[in-house]
Amino acid sequence: MVPPPEDPVVSRALEEGPEQRYVGDRDLTAWPTAVGSVLVRLAAELRQRLTPQAVLLVVLAVGLVLAAGLTALAGAVYDAVTEDDGVAALDRPLLDAVLGLRTPALDTAVTAFSALGGPVGMPVLAGVVAIGLAVAWRQWTPVLLVAATAAGSLALTVVGKVTVGRVRPPQVDAVPPYEVSASFPSGHSLNAIALAGIVAYLLVRRQRTRRARTATVVAAAVFALLMGASRVYLGHHWLTDVLVAWALGLAWLTVVVTAHRLLLTLRTVRHPPDPAEQPRSD
Predict the structure, then answer these.
(1) Residue 148 domain-assigned (yes or no)
(2) Residue 83 CB-density burial (10 A; 0-12 exposed, 13-18 middle, 19+ buried)
(3) Which domain covers residue 136, as residue numbers?
(4) CB neighbours of 58 closer than 8 A, spacing ≥ 6?
(5) For the segment 6-59, what is each residue's pLDDT rounded down to a tens digit?
(6) How many domains does the chain have?
(7) 217 assigned to some structural domain
(8) Looking at the DSSP assignment, which residues form a beta bridge with residue 23?
(9) Are 176 and 248 in contact (CB under 8 A)?
């Protein structure tokens, strides 16, 4: 079967230079594990019937379904909360501990920072960064990957809140403005780790030095950790809401990055770059 031709417009939008196949010395189109080999084989079979862009969408859709299933299963953590065992036993003691740390000035600062991870703040922040990278690099890959990450993050948050329906910490222990939606999982924390992670992924593929790549990954991780901590500090979420959100965010980030790597692999097979153009790591 002859593979269907690529959409020339989308193909140009997703055009990748040879150097973008690498993070340092690591080739993103190399799949040394058995699982990776299976994924590439399945993607290649799909490529016989679909365009590379369609394969990307299929992988994202399947990954989103699997991640949504994980979100529903995460309701088991809620059972741990009600039974007061395991890590859930830290929820109430930790909230009691942060009550003693609050000051008016710190409350204001943490509230302002937390707003960056909200349903408006985080997509806007990530969107601005993505558009800036798209303009600077003259390709739409940053916008497409950030948009896919944001859409999946929102879907997982909605599924989790509807499935579990956990009540937030008491308003008497929270810093206003108060939130009334379900508590589990923390959407701010999920958004932060998924979107900061995909921006870091985009950046490290362009950065030539190990120091720059390390700084980028650390900055993304610190941002996500602080966002989750802010939700507990403000009394808007329990610790377990944040922990599960981080896990789900990492799972979805892995799906998006894997889907993009598969697309790079399919394109590389058809248009292998000159090995001499492989970037050097410091």
Answers:
(1) yes
(2) exposed
(3) 35-271
(4) 46, 50
(5) 554 444 445 555 457 888 888 898 999 999 999 899 888 888 888 877 888 888
(6) 1
(7) yes
(8) 26
(9) no
